[in-house]
Amino acid sequence: MTSSDIRKKYIKFFIDKGHKEIAPAKLVPENDPSTLFTSSGMQPLVPYLLGRTHPAGKRLVDSQPCFRAEDIEEVGDNRHTTFFEMLGNWSLGDYFKKEQLSWIWAFFREELGLPQERLYVSVFEGSNGVPKDTESYEIWKSLGLSEDNIYFYGVEKNWWSRFGAPDKMSVGEIGGPDSEMFFEFTQVEHDPKYGSSCHPNCDCGRFLEIGNSVFIQYQKQGDGSLKELSQKNVDFGGGLERITAAMNDAPDVFKTDLYESIIQTIETVTGTKYEMEKEKMQVIADHVRGSEALIKDGVIPSNKLQGYILRRLLRRSAVKLRQINKDIKLNELATVVSDESVKAVINEEMDRFSRTLDQGLKEITKIESIDGKKAFDLHQTFGFPYEVTEELFRYKGQEIDREQFKAEFEKHKELSRTASAGMFKGGLADNSEIVTKYHTATHLLHQALRDVLGPQVFQKGSNITSERLRFDFSFDRKLTDEEIRKTEEIVNKRIEEDLKVDRKIVNPSEAKEIGAIGLFDEKYGLEVSIYGIGPGFAPDSKAKDQRDRGGYYSLEFCGGPHVEHTGAIGKIKIVKEEAISAGIRRIRAQLA
Ligand code: SER
Fold it and tell me: Which of 36, 118, 545, 577 has the fewest CB atoms within 10 Å distance of its CB?
């Protein structure tokens, strides 16, 4: 069965159980400074898991492309990837354990026909004041699973939150006990390197996790305890790559149809068979597939944030290519993808790296012992991402002092705190007060630009950190100093007026009728959330378009969060205006 058949069957199965299919989110979250990438299906749904009404209802299903930067170094085996597609279904305070476990069991057993004796499940054994999940255990038994196929594990294995176990969750974060499903590849021998005996959560590769039902019902409190949420949610996620491997009894996700042509191309360009250089080809295949998805979502290689992760993926792939075949031209990497604009971005990055790669590799052979300072020189002079150098020396049995590298890096660039967090931790600050202020300022900026430049201005993207806002919009020429000054003046005037910020749930046609603007997802269909900034529905404005907007100065589709009154923002200064591609401009602004 192909991956596309599995995806279709899954979506249909849950639609038949009363779910609405929702559109997947972009890989780079809009206006979410708490993370660099969408790394699970639940991420865009956090506000709804916390109790906000979702426009599509209480039962949702989708297939969400995900990127997990923290797994880069895990890639190079039969199952780890940075980029993957997660099949997901959710109950937002609707059904709970009984329905979820029965349905997911029916999906794997009856829809897909996976053999019962090769399916195992795990259940939470209890800890941190959360009881042992005997309810799930009893449900699994009632579905016909033998006791031998049900395992209990603690918080390290059977608790899910975006940050892991309860003690790693930040205040306000949600999570809960989970129940995972595993498929056993009986043809894979247990590797004693991973423990004397094999079990579903063993890392030897005999078992593959193919699904995870998380019972999201707790929120971390300031005193470290876990509080029950007002609604009990189900959050299921299953990796399409792994389910496809199980369905085809192929104990290697890189042998599924999702990677078939990628691996074949890598074999052709390197003149080497997959079986000879598995680990390196797995890295290249994953990284190029991930890069393609990131580039399509607007990321370009750079030294910061998402751009740095993309650069790391591409340069690490280039090093692996050269290690397989030292004569290979780096622009061969782009032949792995089909999209012409993605090829162009990869080629440009390979051109840049190929000027220094060979010299850098030569230099590395000369270095007898590495330290943070030398790693920084390799980064500075030859463009070697720190992690690539780290990996190359790890092969030689040498570790680098990362703190020393960081200190050296910060000495040479006045790297901002958030950029540095993005480079070194793969994540950003929390959803703080300052970010909320920037978010509301972005709405004012959008409308002010339309006032000054005309209604052809439309938001194309935005990104906010605790240090600045970035706003991309359609416009075909550079802004004059006067236009920038005027825009800034309007935004600051609206802030001074201390306008109130309202949220309304309306249907899309109503929202369009009253002139709401912004990025919004047609697929949600039923109802949308809009934010209005201004005196509100008492249209006394002389400006016709503001009258149309029901008296609001700005009216946008948006999920929030926002300040309650614009006065809370403070003063805004536009610090940069530039082109990012044909017809698209970017503004950076900061709190003055
Ligand atoms: N959020 C859970 C996971 O990522 C299940 O969807 O595994």
Answer: 545
pLDDT tens, residue by residue, 504-539? 777 777 777 777 887 655 444 455 678 899 887 544
**How far lies 461's CA from each of 30, 76, 574, 584, in Å?**
7, 34, 17, 10
* Beta bridge mates, 120: 182
- CB 40 less than 6 A from any atom of ligand 1: yes
How does DSSP assign 356-403, residue by residue? HHHHHHHHHHH-SS--HHHHHHHHHHH---HHHHHHHHHHTT----HH
User: Where are the domains positioned within the chain?
Assistant: 3-255, 271-356, 367-423, 426-591
Q: Is the CB of 219 under 6 A from ligand 1?
A: no
Instruction: Name the 3-class secondary structure at 588.
Output: strand
Q: Which tens digits make up the pLDDT trace of 213-223?
A: 999 999 988 88
**22, amino acid identity:** I
Q: pLDDT per residue over 128-168, tens digit each?
A: 889 999 999 999 999 999 999 999 999 999 999 988 899 88
Distance 40 CA to ligand 1 centre (A): 6
The label of the residue with tokens 């792994």 reads 242
Question: Architecture of 3-255 per CATH?
Answer: 2-Layer Sandwich (3.30)
For residue 37, report the distance from its CA to the centre of ligand 1, in Å: 15
| Banded model confidence at residue 187, pLDDT cuts 50, 70, 90 | very high
CATH architecture under which domain 426-591 falls: 2-Layer Sandwich (3.30)
Identical fold for domains 3-255 and 426-591, yes or no, is no
SS (H, E, C) 503-565: EEEECHHHHHHCCCECCCCHHHCCCEEEEEECCCCCCCCCCHHHHHCCCCCEEEECCCCCCCE
Q: pLDDT by residue (tens digit) across 300-320?
A: 998 777 888 999 999 999 999
3-state secondary structure of 132: coil
